[in-house]
Structures are given as structure tokens and as C-alpha cells.
Amino acid sequence: MELIVISSVWCPSCLIMHPRYVELSQKYHLTLTNYDYDTDASIISKYHVGDILPVCIIVKDEEIERIIGEKSMKELNKIIESLM
Asked: Quick check: 18 and 49 in contact, CB under 8 A?
């Protein structure tokens, strides 16, 4: 599985969530790809990201889950474990 995280340097929630996504990717051996909302706009346009950041798209051949905004590690672990 892959975690595609779309965030921005001006977004407080993104700064909070970044280490959580890094920890999650390491714990479950997931590929982590980060995109910046502003500088990678042409790449992320295909993901149809709204105005709430960060967005984490979980991909396993195709998108299987989308996490928007701040979540606790407990919530993130539960989501990943339900998808494995």
C-alpha cells in the first residue's frame, strides 16, 4: 500500500500530521509520497483535493481510502489495520 499525502507548509494541521504519517509508514512498511498543495498543483490536480488539508490517499492498485484533516495515531492505526 502507498500513502499519498498532500499538505502545505502554511497549514498547521499538516505540520502536526506529517510525523504521524511518517510513523505510520514505518510501522506498516508503507510507501510514503508527499506532495505540496501549492508547488505540486499540476500533479495533485488528478486527486481532486478540496480545501481541507492535509489529505492522505491510501492506494492499493487504486484509491481505497481518503483521510482528510487531523486524526489521532489511534484513529490512523485503526484505519490502516482495517485495510490490511
From this structure: no
Q: Is 52:68 a contact under the CB 8 Å cutoff? A: yes
Residue type, 31: T
Q: Is the CB of residue 76 less than 8 Å from the CB of residue 84?
A: no
Output the pTM of the full model. 0.92
The edge-to-edge listing of strands for the beta sheet with 2-7 is: 31-36, 2-7, 55-60, 62-68
38-61 pLDDT, tens per residue? Answer: 999 999 999 999 889 999 999 999
Cis check for the bond before 12: say yes or no (omega within 30 of 0): no
Domains annotated for the chain, with CATH where assigned, are 2-83 (3.40.30.10)
- For residues 55 and 5, the answer to whether their CB atoms sit within 8 Å is yes
Q: How far is it, in rounded angstroms, from Cα 19 to Cα 28?
A: 14
